[in-house]
Amino acid sequence: MDCIFCKIIAGEIPSYKIYEDDKVVAFFDILPISHGHTIIASKKHTRDIEGLSEEEISAMAIVIKKIGKAIMEGLAVKGYSVFLDNKSAANQHISHTHFHLVPRAEGDGLERWPQSGYEEGEAEHYLKKIKAKL
Amino acid sequence: MDCIFCKIAKGEISSYKVYEDSKTLAFLDIAPVNNGHILVIPKKHYKNIEDISEEELYVAIKTVKKIGKALKKSLNILGYNVNINNNPIAGQIIPHIHFHIIPRYKNDGLKLWKQGKYKNKEIEKIQNKIQKYFNNK
Q: CATH number of the domain at B4-136, please?
């Protein structure tokens, strides 16, 4: 297995681990967007969230809450951004399911992506397409 | 309750609903970052991740998984980003927890936030602060 996160989980590569249980591990991103930027990964190797069982998703949810609280209280920040990037085109660089927690501060300059609107009838078009696959 | 997402959940305000179950709702963001941009919310009002229960957060992520899969099958996309802006400092505008699911298209120009590096020992100091929180609990 050539996955860097699997190696971190197995302890073959050192990491700044802040939390671990039987299903999930949390460690620092060493190329942080902000200080304390944490990666929460499932111990099981799956490429994306679609490969996680309900039990594993539940374990992830519990750890997101836990780490979020630790970040807010430990680093005295008032909020954080959570990301789950699916596929490399969406910035998923490691093919092992993981969430990012990015602590946020006043004036950190991190901006939301620009939003636009739908033209007449366009929203209905997308709605129909997506609903057809649900 | 004056919350716009609560009103959408109750059907008092119309929305482009793509999916609904007993606990969650998914609908099109009418100010999309990309076409097909979806919002997933718990029907019950929770302000943020601190406020929502483990169980309800899990149920919402399950819905996110379902919608992400459907987006990949229905739209010609390369992937998607899921994002929660947790609290106003993180850009949360509506104080009712919601997940953004943003489909990604070829050359859509959306860029990841810039990553930096830790200076000498900085990372250990920050690790200690968070670890201390766990130890003090």
A: 3.30.428.10
